[in-house]
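Our consortium's second objective concerns turning raw sequence data into structural hypotheses that experimental partners can test. To show how far this objective has progressed, the report includes one record in full. It was chosen at random from the queue rather than selected for favorable results. The single chain below, 68 residues long, was entered without modification.
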Amino acid sequence: MADVEDPDLFVSAPIYEWQQTPEGKFCMKNASDIKYHISPDDHSYGYKVKITGNMKDKHLTWLTLKKT
């Protein structure tokens, strides 16, 4: 994400777009404690956004195999 004044405000649209993808829908359905983390990006002088959550092993295995 580019250098913006309020990253929490500007991250909402890309997160929503990710939630509409098949992977995003699967994660939103099968993961718990989903959070996003914003950190500075030293290479672009902007921000990096990481979405994390907890998922059962069987769901994580399925998602990993689906992506390869």
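The partners drew two points from this record. The longest strand covers residues 31-41. The chain has four helices and two strands. Both points have been shared with the crystallography group to help prioritize constructs.
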